[in-house]
Amino acid sequence: MPHATQLYQDFPATCWPIVYSNDYNITFIGLEKLHPFDSGKWGKVINFLKEDKLITNDTIVTAKEATEEDLLVVHTRGYLNKLKWSFVVATITEIPPLVLLPNFLVQRRVLKPLRTQTGGTIMAGKLAIDRGWAINVGGGFHHCSGDKGGGFCAYADITLAIKFLFERVEGITKATIIDLDAHQGNGHERDFIDDKRVYIMDVYNRHIYPGDTMAKKAIKRKIELDWGTEDKEYLEKVETHVKGALNEVTPDVIVYNAGTDILDGDPLGGLSISPQGIIKRDEIVFSIARSRSIPILMVTSGGYQKRTARIIADSILNLHNLGLIDSASAETREPRI
Fold it and tell me: Which molecular-function annotation in GO is an example for this chain (predicted)?
């Protein structure tokens, strides 16, 4: 029997299936500025959505922190114990000064936000099934697998969300991951390398981190991009291959890893996609998923420029303006147990 968890519950129909907590944001005596990641971007996205009157504090779903028992659904106890060493967390998050801090501070200021985002992804998985779509404004830690973290990813939230659904929701037996972050999603690929229930499509810059050859064996539809790929080529490939992936296998749920590190000028992504290109990309993925009535869970993943928060918010607003996400459609589906 699955363990008891606080992450699966029903929410009022007045709540949008948009998941967030103030605990997502990492701020700690300026150490967060030593990594190119904007560790406050999640709060900025929510503030933009509030300013544009899409949501209020009362209409979003507040994420809960994943407990150790939740994490053990995927992670080994040995890996979780390693996170009790500050130097391990410093290596995973690529913030070397964390080595100098006592682990209780690292747990509270760095790992708790990541555990809360992980809980948010798991919660959003259930919401996507109940409502047809869900967005976790955080998450997308696609470099972490059950026994190894890396690339700022300490918990395998994508794997966890899928495994929770397989274990707990009747009729959910197949999942498709559409990973459109600029980097290869080697974490979930390693986790599902021998699992035929999970179809992985990954579009990434072939020249950058992590270059995980073993993990690539798990990818069913692999689209490797070159430096500086621009909107036209990128959007054509996304549309062609999303349709192709869903023609090959009709999943019970899509997990969409919507990294914004494809943005032109991103210091790590190496691609040249415009803000409008990112908004159009998300529109394409949601349009195809919604037209086929496949529940879709979106996580926001990587993005290393200050302007990415505005772009994520603009993309969510565009999805709403096009009727691809709305509270009315969110209320029409019966909860599944």
Answer: DNA-binding transcription factor binding
C-alpha–C-alpha distance, residues 108 and 114, integer Å: 10
Residue-level pLDDT at 1: 87
pLDDT number for residue 37: 66
From start to end of the chain, where are the E strands? Answer: 18-20, 61-62, 133-136, 175-179, 198-205, 221-225, 253-257, 296-299
Contact 203, 242 (CB under 8 A): no
CA neighbor of 92 nearest in space, from 182, 189, 210, 206: 210
Is 188 an active-site residue?
no
pLDDT, averaged across the chain:
94
Half-sphere exposure of 256 (CA within 13 A, CB side): 28
In the set 75, 142, 143, 188, the catalytic residue is 143
pLDDT value at position 334?
46
Residues of the chain with pLDDT under 70: 28-37, 328-337
pLDDT of amino acid 30: 66
Angle of helix 41-51 relative to helix 308-321, nearest 10 degrees, comes to 40
Chosen CATH of 18-332 out of 3.40.20.10, 1.10.443.10, 3.40.800.20, 3.90.1150.10: 3.40.800.20
Alpha-carbon span 218 to 209, nearest angstrom: 17
> What is the spatial distance between Cα 159 and Cα 166, in angstroms, rounded to a whole number?
11
pTM for the model stands at 0.96
Cα distances from 250 to residues 175, 197, 286, in angstroms, run: 8, 11, 15
Identify the pLDDT of residue 35.
59
- The pLDDT value given to residue 33: 66
